[in-house]
Specification:
About 35% of the residues are buried. This protein is about 25% helix and about 25% strand. The chain has a 9-stranded mixed beta sheet with strand order 3-1-2-4-5-6-7-8-9. With about 220 residues, the chain is an alpha/beta fold. The chain is built from 6 helices and 9 strands; from the N terminus they run H-E-E-E-H-E-H-E-E-E-H-E-H-E-H. The protein has a single domain, classed as Aldolase class I (TIM Barrel, Alpha-Beta Barrel), CATH 3.20.20.
Length: about 220
Amino acid sequence: MSLQVKNLSDEQSKQLSSGKYLPIMEEFYTIQGEGRKAGKPAYFIRIGGCDVGCHWCDVKESWDASLHPLKAVDDLIHRLEEVPAKDVVITGGEPTIYNLDYLCEVLHANGYKTFLETSGAHKFSGRWNWICLSPKKNQPPRPEVYSFAHELKVIVHNKNDFKWAERHADKVNKDCKLYLQPEWSKLDEMMPLIINYVMKNPSWNISLQTHKFMKIP
């Protein structure tokens, strides 16, 4: 676990290390747009900080953790009470940079289900109802994280990504759901290739960024 927030006081560093405060970029209630849970309402918590740095990332403003203020995890519950859904998605950035034990503890204690979106580049902390592993070439997943994944979502940016996807599919557990998702800027180019691949390899499914078609966050 590599904490990315800089220039903190000793007390702030202690709070961050404990996981009781996190650099939260944004929170919003929306419809999950991707993967196995697409179409379901969920509360998203986006944590700032990423050391993976995909060139096609559509949330590059999340990379620099110092731009996002530390917020108390305990205060999240008051905001969650304002929405009816019980699914909470923790995303980033790369959220596993931080200690997520306390966050998950608080969420579970209040009846919420926890969903993690991660590249798998760091050790896991926290207790999760669902883990979406989306491996990235800049920092491939740690070997031990594959067994935890409920869902493998590979972003297809070029033809070589099909081989990349196969290598990762060989490492996850047998119950893990397999998804190929076109990178948004290459949608028209990659979609026919993905359709053809999945028709020939039915263990795979297609994931789309449906929230972008719906024009919602």
